[in-house]
Amino acid sequence: MKKLVIATMLFMGMVITGFAQSTKVIALVNKASWCHVCMENAPRFEKDIVPMVMQNKNVQILINDLSDATTKDASLPILQKAGIEKFASKNSGTGMLYFIDAKTKKLISEVSLAEKNEQIKNVYMAALTKIKI
Question: How many whole angstroms separate alpha carbon 65 and alpha carbon 29?
Answer without folding.
Answer: 8
